[in-house]
């Protein structure tokens, strides 16, 4: 078991991010920070308010998508891994966003990993652990 | 096409002589008039040569330094000169050296054109030039009458007879340049024509018998010598082969012609022929002259006619033919009368007979012509008598109804009708004669007709009455257009349209369901995580928080059930076209869920205002209505995003009155420009970028609302301020 890490959870759905925080804190001793939008997550990283080792982010959010966040991390060459949670809808032009496009772009980033909604706690814990073990 | 019939002529010999004499005098008078033209051009060109500017130019050329100002002055002068003498089509100054380089050219239609570098390229021009060079100094060259193409500013090009006069300007016994005048006969001929009156013909021809001018000539009749065509004079007047200076009688026409030589030439070079129709001669000759002159003009331009004009254009010649036949009949009677009367001269009789035969041939020709049109028409043509018996039917009519063409003749017209129409048909005709009403006539209408095998075919029928001069009851001409192909095409188009709408409906449903799947994932995720959280809490014995989590679990479940409920509204009736009463509020509540994702992601607020519509119901296909409303919301969101008017807000307001329910959807987007307003409901119109909108949205929405006994309209829209769409339904009232 690696030492305590800092995880930033970004989701526009308060219930989801709260439950996820409670679970992670219950199962692992990582420090969890919450953000409601991609933009507020970016400003947390930019201002250096908190130290962040891993980002778990939803894909579709108003005011800054998961992709925006990944792009920021890549452009600023931050040493942060990303777990991307996707809503599962593909090529959804009704929403004005394109899953395939997002995934393709995110894959170029390298360290991003995907989890599709709905997922079990074990799945995300496994991803979190594997990221920190590889460090 | 022009057909003229001349029938029956009887002349009194004494008066014929008198008439011939008049014609000879007229002809001489006119011919001298033509000769005079040569004289007047010769006089004019000599006067022109003495003009100051012309002399000055000659001096300058001799000194080898031509002044531009002199040429300009000459040009202005010649311009005025041609304006005063419109028969002079062209006046030129041509340098002797360099093979006749042009210095000045002025044309009578006002165009001032100088072609400084132009050489005498045409053979005709070189010939003039050489002929003029060969003249002794001081002599004038009077050219032959030839063809020239005249162009006008206000009309097409026209061929005209013309002659050219050249006059050399001489210095030191040496020719310096030529003055050249082109004389056009067009205007003179028209003046002569007016002089002799409209009933007489004028033919101006050359010695070979080619026409240079002819009253009402067709283009191809003129100037045959230029195009190696045979000379028409001796074809038109074969008797002239014997002698060219004679008078002649041809049918009803008196002819006089004369040949003249142009000045300075001994060879006859042109002639003038004046012909006079007997109709005009009647005014001069006394009452002993019997003339029957029938002129039938068939102006037929039937090539491709539309429904409205076809009837009129077709009927006119048919009626004329009937008239002509009646007149011929009268002529027969007349001849019988003459025969009964012995004091009529036999040769006059003969002449009348010949002409009669001639006219019959022509009538027959035109009959064949018309019959050809009748037979070959693409439309079916059927003539019936007043009792509905078929008298005539063309090929197309036969084919259309699967009969041999002749098989139809003498059949009752009712044979071609389905039973219900056949029964009433004769009473229609009787009523028509009784009331003289114009029913069914002129306008035309769509009907169903019957083929030989009993099958039905859709037709467009136009009926025209063929009135007789006599007391007999009219015949009727039916013009029938087979609409089978048109109907099939219409049906195919309709099917394609339906298919496109269905496809578009499925596509939008697919998009909606995909959005809902996403929407439902969030609560499901929460339920899953919360369940696991409760599990972990139990493991770790943190019981105090479990109650709260269980409550959350319940909330999330309710959320899922609401989303599922809204999905039901989409699937309700989507497989059938059924309508059912549904509460307006239900539609709006599910709309909130369906639109949530789109609104949420684009940060647009949705405000619902229910005015007095609580409990109001509408009878509709919920799925279709939901599609319409969602489409409007989607458009509104797109408009807000495109205009970036923030904060974005869409208001959905509902009203209900006695009869109807109204939903007004307003946004604060960019609005719609007046030009776009006109076409927003057109199929395939879209303002969205390629791939984003199908352009079917609003047109289909409008159609869907009509299906649901309602309508969709743009209430108002202001650029920069947003748009208001209105959806209106009939309110559903429960019975009892």
Describe the structure.
The longest helix of chain A is centred in the first third of the chain and has 14 residues, at 14-27. Chain A is 43% helix and 19% strand. Chain A has 5 helices and 5 strands, in the order βαβαβαβαβα. With 135 residues, chain A is of the alpha/beta class. Chain A has helices at 14-27, 38-47, 66-75, 99-109, 121-133, and strands spanning 6-10, 31-35, 54-58, 81-86, 112-116. With 736 residues, chain B is α+β, with helices and mostly antiparallel strands. Chain B contains 18 helices and 25 strands. In chain B, a hairpin with a 6-residue loop joins strand 11 and strand 12. In chain B, helix 2 packs antiparallel against helix 3 (68-84), helix 9 (307-340) packs antiparallel against helix 10 (346-376) and helix 15 runs parallel beside helix 16. The longest helix of chain B has 56 residues, at 484-539. Classes of the chains: A alpha/beta (135), B alpha+beta (736). The A-B interface holds A 12-13, 15-16, 19-20, 22-23, 26-27, 60-63, 87-90, 92-97, 117-121 and B 511-512, 514-515, 517-518, 521-522, 524-530, 532-533, 536-537, 540, 552, 556, 597-598, 600-603, 634, 641, 691-692.
């Amino acid at each position: 078991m690696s030492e305590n890490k800092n995880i930033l959870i970004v989701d526009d759905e308060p219930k989801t991010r709260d439950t996820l925080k409670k679970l992670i804190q219950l199962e692992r001793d990582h420090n969890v920070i919450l953000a409601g939008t991609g933009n507020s997550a970016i400003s947390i990283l930019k201002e250096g308010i908190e130290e962040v080792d891993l980002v778990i982010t939803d894909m579709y959010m108003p005011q800054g998508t998961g992709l925006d966040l990944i792009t920021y991390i890549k452009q600023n060459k931050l040493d942060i891994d990303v777990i991307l949670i996707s809503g599962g809808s593909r090529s959804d032009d009704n929403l004005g966003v394109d899953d395939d496009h997002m995934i393709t772009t995110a894959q170029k980033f390298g360290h991003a990993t995907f989890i599709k909604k709905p997922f079990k706690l074990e799945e995300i814990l496994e991803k979190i652990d594997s990221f920190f073990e590889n460090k | 096409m022009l057909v003229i019939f001349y029938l029956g002529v009887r002349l009194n010999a004494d008066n014929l002589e008198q008439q011939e004499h008049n014609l000879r005098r007229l002809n001489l008078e006119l011919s001298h008039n033509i000769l005079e033209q040569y004289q007047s051009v010769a006089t004019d060109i000599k006067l022109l040569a003495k003009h100051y500017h012309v002399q000055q130019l000659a001096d300058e050329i001799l000194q080898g330094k031509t002044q531009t100002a002199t040429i300009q002055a000459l040009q202005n002068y010649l311009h005025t000169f041609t304006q005063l003498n419109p028969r002079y089509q062209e006046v030129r100054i041509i340098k002797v050296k360099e093979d006749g380089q042009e210095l000045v050219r002025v044309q009578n239609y006002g165009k001032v054109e100088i072609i400084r570098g132009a050489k005498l390229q045409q053979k005709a021009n070189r010939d003039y030039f050489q002929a003029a060079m060969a003249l002794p100094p001081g002599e004038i060259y009077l050219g032959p009458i030839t063809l020239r193409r005249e162009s006008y500013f206000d009309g097409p090009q026209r061929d005209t007879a013309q002659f050219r006069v050249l006059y050399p300007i001489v210095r030191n016994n040496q020719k310096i340049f030529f003055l050249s005048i082109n004389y056009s006969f067009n205007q003179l001929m028209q003046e002569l024509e007016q002089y002799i009156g409209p009933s007489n013909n004028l033919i101006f021809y050359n010695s070979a018998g080619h026409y240079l001018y002819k009253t009402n000539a067709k283009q191809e009749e003129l100037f045959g010598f230029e195009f190696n065509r045979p000379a028409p004079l001796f074809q038109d007047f074969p008797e002239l082969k014997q002698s060219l200076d004679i008078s002649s009688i041809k049918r009803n026409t008196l002819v006089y012609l004369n040949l003249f030589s142009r000045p300075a030439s001994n060879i006859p070079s042109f002639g003038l022929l004046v012909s006079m129709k007997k109709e005009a001669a009647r005014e001069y000759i006394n009452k002993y002259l019997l003339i029957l002159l029938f002129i039938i003009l068939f102006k037929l331009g039937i090539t491709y006619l539309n429904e409205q004009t076809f009837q009129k254009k077709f009927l006119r010649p048919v009626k004329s033919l009937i008239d002509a036949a009646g007149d011929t009949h009268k002529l027969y009677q007349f001849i019988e009368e003459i025969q009964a009367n012995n004091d009529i001269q036999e040769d006059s009789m003969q002449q009348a007979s010949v002409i009669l035969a001639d006219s019959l041939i022509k009538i027959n020709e035109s009959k064949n012509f018309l019959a050809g049109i009748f037979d070959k028409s693409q439309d079916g043509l059927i003539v019936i008598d007043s009792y509905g018996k078929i008298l005539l039917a063309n090929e197309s009519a036969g084919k259309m109804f699967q009969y041999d063409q002749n098989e139809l003749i003498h059949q009752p017209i009712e044979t071609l009708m389905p039973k219900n129409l056949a029964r009433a048909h004769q009473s229609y005709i009787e009523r028509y004669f009784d009331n003289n009403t114009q029913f069914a006539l002129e306008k035309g209408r769509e009907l169903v007709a019957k083929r030989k095998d009993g099958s039905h075919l859709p037709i467009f029928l136009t009926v025209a009455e063929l009135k007789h001069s006599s007391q007999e009851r009219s015949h009727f001409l039916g013009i029938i257009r087979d609409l089978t192909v048109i109907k099939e095409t219409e049906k195919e188009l309709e099917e394609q349209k339906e298919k496109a709408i269905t496809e578009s409906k499925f596509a939008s449903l697919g998009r909606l369901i995909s959005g809902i799947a996403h929407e439902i994932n969030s609560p499901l995720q929460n339920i899953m995580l919360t369940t696991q959280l409760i599990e972990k809490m139990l493991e770790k014995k943190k019981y105090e928080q479990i109650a709260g989590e269980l409550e959350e679990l319940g909330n999330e479940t309710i959320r899922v059930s609401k989303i599922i409920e809204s999905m039901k509204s989409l699937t309700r009736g989507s497989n059938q076209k059924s309508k059912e009463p549904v509460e307006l509020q239900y539609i709006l509540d599910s709309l909130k869920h369906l639109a949530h994702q789109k609104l949420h992601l684009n940060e647009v607020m949705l405000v619902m205002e229910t005015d007095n519509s609580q409990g109001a119901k509408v009878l509709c296909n919920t799925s279709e209505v939901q599609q319409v409303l969602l489409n409007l919301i989607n458009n509104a969101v797109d408009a807000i995003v495109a205009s970036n008017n923030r904060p974005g807000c869409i208001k959905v307001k509902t009203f209900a009155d006695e009869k109807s329910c109204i939903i007004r959807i307003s946004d604060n987007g960019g609005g719609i420009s007046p030009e776009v307003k006109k076409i927003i409901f057109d199929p395939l119109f879209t303002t969205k970028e390629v791939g984003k909108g199908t352009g079917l949205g609003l047109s289909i929405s409008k159609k869907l609302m009509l299906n649901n006994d309602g309508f969709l309209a743009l209430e108002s829209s202001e650029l920069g301020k947003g748009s208001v769409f209105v959806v209106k339904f009939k309110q559903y009232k429960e019975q009892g």
